[in-house]
Amino acid sequence: MEFLLIIANVAVIWVLAVITPGANVLLTINTALNYNRHTASFSAFGVAVAVALWGLFGGSGLIILFSLFPEILTAMKVLGGAYLVYLGLRQLKQIREKKKLHIDPQALSSLPSPKRVFLTAFFTSILNVKTGFFVVSVFSVSVTQHITLPLILAIMFTMSGITLVWHLFLSFAFSRHSAKSAYEKASRLFDFLTGGLFTLFGIKVMAS
């Protein structure tokens, strides 16, 4: 009974965490709008795998290393922030290219490989220390002192499964024709906002 109660607590906390707008959500939405549902689904899987790893780190106590060796956390913040800044600047660069070539935004968006989409989402999430902090809060609030391997695995699959379902929903919702039509009307503005937000997220992470 205690096992199920812990999993229920984890599920509630993680649902609130995963729907919070952030770099991971923004990336999946942007991928769905620019490409299609199938391509965006690989972004969902990339984020879900990264969350599973964060769950493993939290359950095995590896996250404690961040407090014992602050330089590890600092390095991850710098790497994660720099990667988000790179994504933001790349997005802003695409706006300039679209304007220069005077073509439809959708015509420029040749489909990237599933591997590239997966890895981009994975690295965005695994280098996102905000995800790590959420994992710490989950384990500190929900888990007892004597944690077992089955419980760690159950928590990992719970967090990863919730993340996957949410991001697959985003992939479906924002790849629909109505969403794409709205995006086409304001693509430059949306690309500018997403590029700017990625850059700001990155700067904020590195400065924290």
Automatic annotation (TrEMBL):
Alphabetical list of InterPro entries matching this protein: LeuE-type
A GO-annotated cellular component: plasma membrane
GO MF annotations, alphabetized: amino acid transmembrane transporter activity
**Transmembrane segments annotated in the record for this chain:** 6-27, 39-57, 63-89, 117-141, 147-169, 189-207
Q: How does it sit in the membrane?
A: Multi-pass membrane protein
UniProtKB keywords: Cell membrane, Membrane, Transmembrane, Transmembrane helix
Localization in the cell? Cell membrane
The name this protein carries in UniProt is Lysine transporter LysE
Organism whose genome encodes this protein: Enterovibrio coralii
